[in-house]
């Protein structure tokens, strides 16, 4: 696949993912009790040689799908660096991504979750940036306390970065 085509595809799919996230939130609005949201925070280990990795904050929405045996949900996530990292050349390093995924979670108070889907990202190193898209896979463990879910998760961002995060979902 040519690099020019990939750049064009990334430019086209970014608005599509944004539109899907908006549609997901609007479709879930009538069933407001079903829509959940949350955040994840942690270091983003990029494939860019770095002295210090950026720290990212990811905001997500999830809409549950009907299933008797497991919690199954459709999710969308936007992640941005809130604390820039530093490359070996001394330049600022940032990571941005948008993702859509399907997540499966056990239904017990102590749970295990797995997710997979599509993501696109941008690694910003100094004045240059590289865009890419591909798979997102991840999993985690957590516990339920009241109406909140607390989790420790690992996510592979299509081979471009690894995201180890602590999160909460309401």
How would you portray this structure in words?
- By secondary structure, the protein is α+β, with helices and mostly antiparallel strands.
- It has one domain: Porin (Beta Barrel), CATH 2.40.160.
- It contains 1 helix and 10 strands, in the order H-E-E-E-E-E-E-E-E-E-E.
- It has one helix at residues 3-28, and strands at 36-46, 50-52, 55-65, 71-83, 85-87, 92-105, 110-125, 128-145, 148-156, 161-169.
- Strands 1-3-4-6-7-8-9-10 form an 8-stranded antiparallel β-barrel.
- Work out the strand percent: over 45%
**Radius of gyration, Cα only, in angstroms?**
16 Å
Number of beta strands: 10
Q: Indicate the percent of residues in helices.
A: 10-25%
Low-confidence stretches: 1-10
Largest beta sheet: strand ordering: 1-3-4-6-7-8-9-10
Ends apart, CA distance between termini? 40 Å
Mean pLDDT: 86
What's the structural domain tally? 1
- CATH class reads Mainly Beta
Count the DSSP helices. Answer: 1
H/E series, N to C? HEEEEEEEEEE
What structural category arises from helix and sheet content?
Answer: alpha+beta
Q: Shape, please? A: elongated
Summarize the structure.
The protein is α+β, with helices and mostly antiparallel strands and 170 residues long. It has one domain: Beta Barrel (Porin). The chain has one helix spanning 3-28, and strands spanning 36-46, 50-52, 55-65, 71-83, 85-87, 92-105, 110-125, 128-145, 148-156, 161-169.
